[in-house]
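#struct-pred
JK: can someone run the complex with 2-acetamido-2-deoxy-beta-D-glucopyranose? inputs below
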Amino acid sequence: MNRGQRKVINVVIATSIFWILITRVFYSRSLHDRASISRCVPSVFSSRTDSDISGSSGTLADYRFPEFANDRELHKHAFRKVLDGPGPGSPRIAFLFTVKGPIELEPVWRKFLQGHEELWSLYVHASNPVDYKFPPGSIFEGREIPSKPVARISISLVDAIRRLLAYALADPHYNNAWFVNVCESTVPVRGFPAVYEYLIGSKHSFVEAFLPEEKYQQWDTMPEFPVVQLRKGETWMQMTRKHAIIIVTDTERYAKFAASCSLWCAPDEEYFQTLLHLEDVSGIANRTTMYANWEETRPIPGSPRSYGSSQDLFALFDKIRKMTQETDGLKQESALDKSPSSLRPICKYNGITNATCFLFARKFEAEATSAILHVMSTLPGF
Ligand SMILES: *[C@@H]1O[C@H](CO)[C@@H](O)[C@H](O)[C@H]1NC(C)=O
Ligand SMILES: *[C@@H]1O[C@H](CO)[C@@H](O)[C@H](O)[C@H]1NC(C)=O
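RT: done, structure tokens with the ligand placed:
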């Protein structure tokens, strides 16, 4: 046998074992498994201390997140836990917060989550400082996973999201079925029951994936995959357990994106999207349920519009909730068709067209908190 043949056989064996294990987990345990350049993220910083997870006596769960020597060990741990199947109870939505520190919109999340305690779980990767702890009484208290610094436009944001996925998959207490990636400027635009029903009932993960224009294709992808298979999309995705497992157990595609690339790289907007496009093309919806206003980019150029308290948030939320067509967002960077109907496709849900597109929105400033709380108590279905 030559090297090439051996490699092929090894890949076939590894893939088969992986899928047998996955199938065992999925089909025996839970039906629900059918289931930027980062513009939301931290400025560059470099201080680094190992996080100390002591004293995490959360109000929601007395669970200490185990620590590992490195991410690879964490991912292996997560995979071993995955083989045991998800935790007990009803399928939950795990909200994965990638933040610097405080989540000033917490009152919005608290109101959204209240009364549905059996159906969600929270995980926070707070990275500036890495040992940031939420105060007693916060819904995020004790939910900080061991974290590392995160810098814009780097693989470190991918690492943070993979860490969150791994801890949420490995958590023995919860039956985490869906994984929603959010940051500190994100809020829900619908009530929890509607969000839950939409996600749990979906046959596809909400991962945007379009072929980016050439300047974003500068990764050395061969021999793993041809560059035409490269995909790009919004970092803030919503995915099934199956897709979370694919991401946490991947090593080969990750290595490609962790290697340096020339100028135009946005690993967080390309790694997840490409991996899931390659591994399960028919399992992703090619869109996200996270609204962002890319038509107006202010106050930060290159970043979607940020809303404070001076805007009419009632009208904004009402508009977002009624949208059945995507925003053009990052899709403007698509290398394919740039016609308006391609940039702003009609939203599909389980194959049905003209569906509600959005469950979440960004970006909102802390000062918008009370206005959003008011919208939540006024708009029906919140
Ligand atoms: C997403 O796009 C791919 C083509 O890139 C397509 O094969 C797949 O069916 C699409 N997913 C859905 C749910 O339509
Ligand atoms: C989609 O829904 C909107 C409002 O719900 C409606 O005005 C529009 O005509 C629908 N479009 C199609 C193609 O069905």
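RT: quick notes.
Residues 20-39, 42-60 have pLDDT under 50 and may be disordered.
The first helix runs from residue 3 to 29.
JK: thanks, will look after standup
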